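Students often ask why inverse folding is considered easier than folding. One informal answer: many sequences map to the same fold, so there is more than one right answer. In these notes we will look at a single instance of the problem. The structure comes first.
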């Protein structure tokens, strides 16, 4: 009795966890605003989440179904432990140099009171920017092999929040976000972003997705606003095949008072362990150009032939341009044998044999002489098994040719079968990431598994896709301007985005009559600040940057930051983000299809005078009819300045702010 009392008192003092006899526990965030309650109802774990005086998640059950084993049932809480933790860690690269990782934790040990007597733990962490919990399957008395047929983590939301979501296609996340009342969301990928009437933002996602299937959310018929985790299955219907002891990924509920604060949330990174090694000098963020957009415009081809893009001569032209304009790297897609078979069969691609008009030895020497890195490219077309077989040879081949950055791709259905986001593919993506780390290779993964903060542990996982990037503007109706105002609050919360911005010839009528980029020129510049990626491409054909004064902004803008702040944002309407590197600030602002004038305070600057060089939409700029007018202006500002940003329809604003001497 006395011991229990002391335990309760200690929890209250240090971890804010209160234990009641019925297996009921409460844990709150270090600032006390977020409270997670745990209890057992008829032997089934349940939880609730409250933020200040707002209910976020009402009583929601947590359980599992298995093949050849009964569903978890009749659990009781046999023990619990509480911890608190605080550290400030330094990123290898990122939106912020220093990150505070502070949380209260409770580990609940549960055991079935039936003949199975299976044991699991539920580990809960409460941060100031959200709640996370994961299941730990302990080593069991008898059978340690689990085939999970259904993870039943419920999210019974407290209200019909406003929701931004994409459908749960198990092979693609390349959709435009829909904004609907939550109850119209039938099935969605995570991150799913919600906002309450008060403005509170809630994001459901996962962290450290490892040896498990990706989680989607599906609506339940009852109660209202109720969702359940649905794991992406294997072809045989099983969702996860695992041997205890093992952890599931973290189920994360980010909670912030407004949209701006979402941009400062680090919970997803914080939930991943630090990297093993301390020396990552070989990892270098940067900017690149490349043989890429030309193929999407059908100007050049991936396959060798009269219009082949990745020829030695053409890639040299890009290397020259990169060197002259202080870029770091050049991408060449369509360099290897197999492109003629893309999507047509197994084992199509060779990752060690170039087309005869692409001399990798010569290019490697040429690039080195100009201090430019070559970015390699491995398109698998979804044929991941053949890629795995060649992986060592492929990475060795690149290392021999001084290639330390590789863009991978999985455009095509998974062969022989399966889904992009099932457990097998999760394991594949992680294998490539681990292997690349061994080879000291940085990765840019297209058609990836969604990021879950694993770039903290594997800092070579630089950037990736898994959303509708620029390419869609080349061969579809394209991305409306609103898309860029939604991405930072949805997909962007999970990890860096290789959107490949910087198209200056926004209409490209010469190549495509009906397609165009729905953006003004200033909006393109703003992408570099609004959409975070440690590798940013200047994606246009290099000839389109000739004699363009606006190109100066892309040349100067960093891709790695000491500080990041969202100044003002309304998800889906506009967003203004400020980032700082070595005391130089950059601001990027984008709007949707509506023109806006927005006043921002510059009080995040230290006292003093600064030179602001800005790039804003010019007279009558409009993303459809008149995208090119741009005003480039220099003016003196200070931390007291209230600055008016003008945004044309589909427009943008970008600026650089340096202290005056
Ligand atoms: C899709 C990728 O997103 C794109 O960047 C690439 O050019 C093509 N696949 C071909 O690999
Ligand atoms: Ca793609």
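Output (designed amino acids):
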């Amino acid at each position: 009795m006395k011991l229990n009392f002391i335990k309760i008192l200690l929890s209250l003092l240090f971890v804010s966890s209160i234990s009641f006899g019925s297996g009921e526990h409460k844990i709150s965030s270090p600032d006390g605003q977020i409270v997670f309650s745990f209890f057992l109802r008829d032997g089934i774990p349940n939880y609730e989440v409250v933020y200040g005086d707002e209910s976020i998640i009402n009583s929601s059950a947590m359980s599992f179904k298995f093949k050849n084993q009964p569903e978890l049932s009749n659990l009781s809480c046999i023990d619990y432990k509480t911890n608190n933790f605080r550290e400030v860690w330094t990123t290898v690269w990122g939106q912020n140099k220093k990150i505070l990782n502070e949380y209260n934790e409770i580990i609940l040990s549960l055991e079935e009171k039936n003949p199975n007597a299976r044991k699991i733990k539920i580990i809960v962490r409460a941060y100031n920017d959200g709640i996370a919990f994961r299941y730990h399957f302990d080593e069991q008395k008898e059978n340690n092999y689990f085939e999970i047929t259904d993870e039943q983590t419920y999210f019974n939301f407290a209200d019909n929040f406003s929701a931004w979501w994409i459908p749960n296609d198990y092979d693609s996340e390349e959709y435009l976000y829909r904004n609907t009342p939550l109850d119209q969301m039938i099935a969605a990928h995570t991150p799913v972003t919600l906002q309450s009437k008060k403005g509170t933002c809630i994001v459901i996602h996962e962290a450290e997705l490892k040896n498990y299937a990706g989680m989607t959310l599906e609506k339940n018929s009852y109660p209202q606003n109720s969702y359940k985790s649905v794991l992406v299955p294997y072809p045989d219907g099983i969702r996860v095949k695992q041997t205890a002891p093992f952890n599931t990924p973290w189920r994360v509920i980010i909670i912030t008072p407004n949209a701006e604060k979402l941009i400062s949330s680090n919970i997803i990174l914080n939930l991943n362990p630090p990297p093993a090694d301390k020396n990552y000098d070989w990892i270098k963020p940067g900017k690149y150009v490349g043989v890429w957009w030309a193929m999407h415009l059908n100007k050049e081809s991936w396959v060798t032939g009269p219009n082949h893009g990745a020829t030695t001569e053409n890639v040299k032209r890009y290397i020259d341009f990169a060197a002259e304009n202080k870029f770091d790297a050049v991408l060449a897609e369509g360099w290897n044998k197999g492109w003629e078979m893309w999507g047509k069969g197994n084992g199509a691609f060779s990752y060690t044999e170039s087309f005869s008009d692409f001399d990798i030895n010569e290019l490697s020497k040429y690039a080195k002489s100009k201090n430019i890195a070559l970015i390699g490219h491995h398109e698998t077309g979804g044929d991941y098994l053949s890629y795995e077989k060649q992986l060592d040879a492929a990475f060795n081949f690149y290392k021999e040719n001084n290639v330390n950055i590789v863009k991978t791709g999985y455009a095509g259905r998974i062969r022989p079968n399966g889904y992009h986001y099932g457990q097998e593919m999760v394991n594949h993506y992680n294998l490539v990431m681990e292997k690349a780390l061994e080879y000291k290779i940085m990765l840019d993964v297209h058609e990836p598994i969604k990021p879950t903060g694993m770039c903290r542990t594997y800092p070579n996982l630089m950037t990736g896709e898994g959303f509708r990037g620029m390419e869609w503007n080349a061969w579809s109706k394209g991305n409306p301007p609103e898309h860029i105002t939604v991405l930072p609050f949805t997909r962007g919360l999970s990890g860096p985005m290789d959107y490949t911005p910087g198209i200056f010839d926004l209409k490209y009528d010469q190549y495509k009559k009906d397609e165009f980029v729905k953006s003004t020129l200033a909006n393109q510049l703003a992408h570099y600040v609004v959409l975070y990626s440690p590798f940013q491409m200047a994606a246009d054909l290099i000839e389109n940057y000739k004699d363009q004064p606006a190109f100066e902004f892309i040349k100067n803008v960093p891709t790695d930051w000491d500080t990041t702040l969202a100044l003002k944002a309304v998800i889906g309407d506009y967003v203004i983000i400020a980032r700082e590197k070595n005391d130089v600030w950059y601001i990027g602002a984008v709007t949707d299809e509506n023109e806006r004038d927005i006043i921002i305070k510059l009080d995040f600057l230290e006292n003093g005078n600064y030179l602001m060089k800005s790039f804003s939409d010019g007279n009558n700029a409009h993303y459809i009819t008149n995208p090119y007018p741009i005003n480039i202006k220099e003016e003196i500002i200070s931390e007291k300045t209230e600055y008016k940003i003008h945004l044309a329809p589909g427009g943008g604003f970008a600026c650089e702010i340096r202290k005056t001497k």
